[in-house]
Amino acid sequence: QVQLVESGGGSVQAGGSLRLSCVVSGQMSGTKNRAWFRQAPGKGREGVAIMNIGGGSINYADSVKGRFTISQDNAKNTVYLQMNSLKPEDSGMYYCAADAFYRGLRPELYASWGQGTQVTVSS
Fold first, then answer.
1. Longest pairwise C-alpha distance within the chain
2. Going by C-beta distance under 8 Å and a sequence separation of 6 or more, which residues neighbour residue 87?
């Protein structure tokens, strides 16, 4: 049983920063590829960033390139999303997801999901 638990969300002003964490437990073979998604009210789930455990494959949504950084601490079984220069349009529920295979930024392909952590960016 794979479990993903997000934390680090909160409310910040535009231009501020947050670092999200996702602690992964369970079968590690099923979580070699880890990603962040977000969903704003009335919007579909949007891929934000993904990387594999080895760090050799990284992809970001165009909307966050240059501002967000995904990283992993394998010893802690944790994936991070450092979010800088936050904008109001970054607001939403952020979800951690994992899969045994590289799935890119397509949420329908991921096997495991966390419950989400809320990010609110005010103008």
1. 41
2. 14, 121
pLDDT per residue over 75-121, tens digit each?
899 999 999 999 999 999 999 999 998 888 899 999 999 999 999 99
| CA atoms 109, 64, 123, 15: torsion sign | positive
* Count of other CB atoms within 10 angstroms of residue 65: 10
CA–CA separation, 2 vs 120, rounded Å?
28
Task: Spell 78-99 as b/e; 16+ CB within 10 A means b.
Answer: bbbbebeebeeebbbbbbbbbb
Query: Considering only CA atoms, which of 23, 6, 1, 20 is closest in space to residue 74?
Result: 23
